[in-house]
Every structure is written in C-alpha cells, then in structure tokens.
Amino acid sequence: xxxxxxxxxxxxxxxxxxxxxxxxxxxxxxxxxxxxxxxxxxxxxxxxxxxxxxxxxxxxxxxxxxxxxxxxxxxxxxxxxxxxxxxxxxxxxxxxxxxxxxx
Amino acid sequence: xxxxxxxxxxxxxxxxxxxxxxxxxxxxxxxxxxxxxxxxxxxxxxxxxxxxxxxxxxxxxxxxxxxxxxxxxxxxxxxxxxxxxxxxxxxxxxxxxxxxxxx
Lengths: 103, 103
Fold this sequence. Notes:
Chains A, B: This is Molybdate transport system regulatory protein. Chains A, B: It comes from Rubrimonas cliftonensis. Two copies of one chain form a homodimer. By secondary structure, chain A is mainly alpha-helical. Chain A has helices at 4-16, 19-25, 30-43, 65-94, and strands at residues 49-52, 60-63.
C-alpha cells in the first residue's frame, strides 16, 4: 500500500507543495509522480494528496490530514523495523567480504 | 547485501540441492539464478553456496556454513522487523479504502 518510494514522494510533496517538483527532486518523471499519487489516493479511504492544477498560473499540492497520518505511521514502521533488526543487520555486515571487523 | 529475493533463492537451493531447480521454482532464469549466487558469493567473506557442476552426470549445490548463518540472520531480521512494525502496519491497513474496519 505504501513503501519507501511512495513515502519519500509524500514527504517531498509536503516540502515542495508540488507533485511535479517533488517528482523532480526524486528523479521521477512528472507522469510517474502523478501515477503514484493517483495510486495512493485510490488505495486509501480518502485522498492522501490534494492538488490544485492551474488557476491563474498557480498549481499546488499538499498532504491531506489522512496523508499526514499515513506518512507518520509509515515512518514509525520503518524506524521500529530498523531498530528491531539492527542486531541482525550488524551480524550480516560482519559476514561481508568488506567488513572491517574481519580484516 | 541480501534481500527477500536472495534469501528465497538460498532457501530454495537448500531445499532442491540445485541452483537451476531453485531458480525454476522461483520463476527465475538459469542465468539470473547463477548471477545472484555469484553476487552473493562475492558479497560475503566466503562463498555462501558451493556448487559442483557436472561430474558423471551429477551436479548439485548446497549452502555453506556461512550461507546457513547468513540466511538465518536474514530470516530473524525479517521476523523481528515484522513483529516490531505490526501495530503500524495494522494502523495503515485501517486507513485503506478496502479496510473491513471502515466498512
């Protein structure tokens, strides 16, 4: 439903106030950014991004309240997952060819 | 270094005793399965898969001790991450359009 790419896009939309600008920042085409936003909006019970296209040369986008809620759940999910798996990640790193601990 | 696809491949190699058969089971080309194994073997300090090609009509592959260790760290990592993030995943699911809890 939401993954790292979509979460980054939501965050960039919040920061830039623009779907096009958010996409550019993430190296995504305009079309790709819009498609992801449409997918997200269809996934959730209400839109997560609201956009105003055009209008006296002004267009813009912002996260809705639901968008903010979904993004913050996702960031907490990532933080908790990273914290919980840190010891296993460290153990895997120590098995790597380039691990300083083995050199 | 190791992700869900590579972990599944290691597990399938352990179960089938064959890189080709493991790849087939995962819907992967022979070449793709071999490339992933080579990448994994180069990533870790020692090979994670050992293979015997041919030899009186017999070829086979098995995880090395390091391969077993890496795979079990990765599976624990996944389990811990899933457990730690379960509440956030549930919260996100409740925000979805198709959530039974909202219907």
